[in-house]
Design a protein that fits this description.
The chain is of the alpha/beta class. Strand 7, helix 8 and strand 8 form a beta-alpha-beta unit. The protein binds manganese (II) ion.
């Protein structure tokens, strides 16, 4: 599979790399990490990245301007994106050939070629593996992007998807010259408004007797603290630091009154809950959407059931 992908890369003069909407460090790290690897190996090719530039992550990646005409006959690679609906920049299907590279459960197969490794901690780990296997030369900027992606998706090597292979790859990346301490500090930092919301989350977390937890962030609260929905990604892991919590939901009210529900679990899968409520994702880290207070309650009840099963 890696060879087939590499052959396609060699074949095309223009390569445009996409990733998912509301990007996280892994989406951006895998996207620009792959871009920089290919630019270094193929300086004569045009290799661009596209999508919304997330201001919170501008320190990690800047997107390029891609004209419609550039899609003609181009190779399109989508990283870190399980389904087409979540691909940022809808022009992804206007190229000559489409490749999916991802580590989420392969619920939706798309692309002319797809490489999905659900054992990988992150898509950035897959890109680093690809580079090592194909003998692509790296440098500090490439290692920086891929390391950021791996740290992001593993919660700095906290989550169970962190494998021996993850550490072998990280050891390779660490050899290159980049601001390792600065990056680690950057990824561990929150700004002062987020810190206050984290305080709110600890203060208002509801935890049942089996360790199912929830917190609701209303629109008025987001406005009061001056944060956006995207900012709430920084607080999704917070409830997991409480030792009695087994699984949890962070319910973020949207301007239209619906809720984006971020679901997490320490042990038992919760992605089936996400699938039942207009979402999906990894077994222990999923996202759902709820369209009423009643549905919020249903989701929490289902989380409680999972926590009860884990307690038996
Ligand atoms: Mn990822």
């Amino acid at each position: 599979m890696l060879e087939m992908i590499f052959e396609k890369i060699k074949e095309y003069q223009t390569i445009i790399i996409h990733r998912h909407m509301r990007p996280d460090p892994d989406a951006l790290g895998s996207q620009v990490g792959l871009q920089r690897l290919l630019q270094k190996r193929f300086p004569e090719k045009t290799i661009k990245v596209t999508g919304y530039t997330e201001p919170n992550l501008a320190w990690l990646a800047q997107m390029d301007t891609v004209e419609d005409v550039e899609y003609q006959g181009a190779l399109i690679i989508v990283t870190d994106t399980a389904n087409q609906a979540r691909i940022d920049d809808k022009r992804y299907n206007q190229g000559g050939f489409l490749i999916k590279i991802d580590h989420h459960p392969n619920d939706e197969v798309y692309g002319d070629l797809s490489w999905v490794d659900t054992d990988a901690s992150s898509c950035s780990e897959m890109i680093a593996h690809f580079a090592l296997e194909m003998g692509l030369e790296m440098d500090g900027d490439i290692a920086y992007a891929l390391y950021a992606g791996i740290v992001g998706d593993t919660g700095r090597f906290l989550y169970p998807a962190t494998s021996a292979k993850t550490f072998r790859i990280v050891a390779e990346l660490r050899q290159y010259n980049f601001d390792f301490a600065g990056l680690s500090r950057q990824m561990d930092s929150v700004d002062d408004t987020i810190a206050k919301v984290i305080g709110y989350v600890y203060n208002h977390l509801e935890i049942d007797e089996n360790g199912a937890a929830r917190v609701i962030l209303s629109q008025s609260l987001l406005k009061e603290y001056g944060i956006s929905d995207a900012d709430t990604s920084f607080i999704v892991g917070v409830p997991g630091r409480v030792n009695t919590v087994k699984n949890w939901g962070v319910f973020v009210e949207q301007p239209d009154g619906s809720y984006r529900v971020r679901l997490r679990s320490k042990f038992l899968p919760i992605n089936e809950i996400a699938k039942r409520h207009h979402g999906g994702g990894h077994p222990l880290a999923s996202g759902a959407n709820s369209y009423s207070i009643e549905e919020n309650e249903e989701i929490y009840k289902e989380l409680q059931q999972v926590a009860a099963d884990a307690s038996r």
